[in-house]
Each structure stands twice: as C-alpha cells, then as structure tokens.
Design a protein that fits this description.
mainly alpha
Length: about 300
C-alpha cells in the first residue's frame, strides 16, 4: 500500500462544543492532575524513604505510581491546554508520538497490575516459598518484562497506524490521538487493521483482565482456611487491587474489544483510564493500607522535624 499523506495537522474536536462546559472540565481536570501528582509522588517518596521498598508489593506499587504519572501526563496537559484554546490542533508527528507513549505507559501499567496480582497470589497461596519466589531479582525481572511488554504492544499499535494514508478530513472526534479515531480518517480500507487492533489491544486487555480475576478467585478460595484477622488483612489488600483493576479495565474493554467503530461515549469512558483511575489509585492504595499510612506519617514527621531545625 503506497502512503499518500496530505495531512500535517489534525484538529481535535475535544470533549464538548460548549465553552462553559470546557471551562468546567478545565477546572475539574486541573484538580485531578494536581491530585494525581501529589498522591503518586507522596506514595513514591513514602516507599523510597521507608523499609517498604524491600517488600515486593510496595516495590511494584512504586513503579505503578511512576507509570500512572507518565501515562496521564501523555494526555492530560494537552487536554487542559486545548480546553482553553479556540482551535485545538496537534501536528501529525506529535499525534503519532502521543499514540506511542500513551499505549506504552498504558500497556506497562496493565502488566504491572498483573505483576502485583501475581505477588499477592504467591504471598497468600504459597507463603512458605514467598521470599524465594519473589526475590528482588525476580521483582526486577518482572518490572523489566512489564516495560518490554508495554513497548511491544505500543510499537505494534504505532506500526499499524504510522503507514496509514491521510488525505481527506483531519478532524479527530476525540481529545487525544488514539487508534480507532485515526482509522476513521484514513483514506483506505482499514477493516483488517481494525481486526489487528482488536487482536492487540482488545485481547491483551481481555486476557489480562481474566487472568487477574482468576488470580483473585484463587486467593479468595485459599483465604477460607485463614484466621479471621489474617483473612481481613488479605481481603483489604486484594479489594484495593480489584478496585483499581475494574476502574482501569472496564472502560478500556468497552473501547478496544469491539470492532473499529467510534461512539460519542468513547471520550467519557477514556477519561476513566486516562485521568480518573490514575487519580484514585493513590487513594485506594493508601486509605485502605495501614502500612502506607504509617510510612506517610513518618515522612511527614521527618519533614516537619527538618523544617523546625
């Protein structure tokens, strides 16, 4: 297929044609973005400045917070700038860069969540072998594998899109560059590419979600033999993980598991996994976690002690 690309700039239609709605969204997303940075940075500092980093669960949580920050930063700053702009545009090269980075950090986050579920499965179902199975070398290898998986997923999406010819309309009915809205603009038959996108993004999300749910099912099955106190602590941790998984995967599955068509609701669902889930992750992992709250209190006391000197 010969590429005939006459489009150098895309116009993003954004969330709403109403200026009042856009100003409300700007204030809301500014609050969300600040909350994402404050919450995730606080988690990373608290883990790094305490003994929690030695524990695999918090080792993964540290990288999940980092991927959250990187992931939402590929979309949210541009979205907020566009909400204040009269004309929302993005260059072709910036669009392709946003597509690649969004799927890279999003894919990495999906795999890190899987790594965290594996850690909880080993901790609860194989407690006697936990320290051997989840050694520091194993945890580091899992993180490297997560980043590699995210890169392969993102590179696949990027290669499916970069060779598409764009020679007609350049209005993207979305607030960021994603595969399905771009397929809609391509001046060629994209049916086969749409199926490949489903096989990539859709099946990865579906298989990962099923694996995660199965792992938590086995965890719950194993917990029936635990004492009430141990069961309560394990359930608290696992329920936090499940909440994060559902917030992230449910809207992603709605968008990527179906044929290559776009709906107006896609933009609302996309907000959940690009902004809402990264904002709630710190709250979910701290408010229901006594060790994290204790680590944060220690960091806060140390900060106030240094200020008082």
């Amino acid at each position: 297929m010969q590429k005939n690309n006459n489009v150098t700039v895309f116009i993003l239609l954004g969330l709403s044609p109403s200026k009042n709605t856009e100003m409300f969204c700007f204030a809301l997303f500014l609050f969300c973005y600040i909350a994402i940075w404050v919450g995730n940075v606080l988690i990373m500092i608290s883990i790094a400045c305490s003994q929690l980093l030695e524990q695999p669960m918090y080792f993964f949580l540290n990288y999940l917070s980092l991927s959250d920050l990187c992931y939402t930063s590929t979309v949210t700053p541009k979205l907020m700038a566009d909400l204040l702009a009269e004309r929302k545009t993005i260059s072709y090269s910036s669009c392709m860069t946003q597509l690649f980075t969004t799927h890279f950090f999003g894919g990495t986050e999906i795999f890190i969540l899987t790594g965290m579920a594996y850690d909880r499965y080993v901790a609860i179902c194989k407690p006697l072998h936990y320290t051997i199975i989840m050694s520091r070398q194993k945890c580091q290898a899992i993180v490297v594998a997560c980043c590699t998986g995210g890169f392969i997923h993102s590179a696949s999406q990027f290669l499916l899109t970069i060779f598409l010819p764009f020679c007609g309309p350049n209005e993207i009915d979305h607030y960021f560059c994603d595969v399905y809205p771009l397929l809609k603009l391509a001046c060629t038959n994209t049916h086969m590419i749409g199926l490949l996108v489903i096989a990539n993004s859709g099946l990865i999300a579906l298989v990962t979600f099923v694996v995660l749910m199965l792992s938590y099912f086995f965890i719950l099955y194993t917990l029936r033999d635990y004492s009430a106190e141990s069961r309560s602590k394990a359930l608290s941790t696992c329920s936090s993980h499940v909440t994060v998984v559902v917030l992230f995967f449910a809207p992603a599955l709605f968008i990527y598991i179906r044929p290559a068509v776009t709906f107006p609701e896609d933009k609302v669902f996309a907000l959940f996994y690009t902004i809402i889930a990264p904002m709630f992750n710190p709250l979910i992992y701290t408010l229901r976690n006594a060790e994290m709250k204790q680590a944060m209190r220690k960091v806060w006391r140390a900060h106030r002690f240094l200020e008082g000197k």
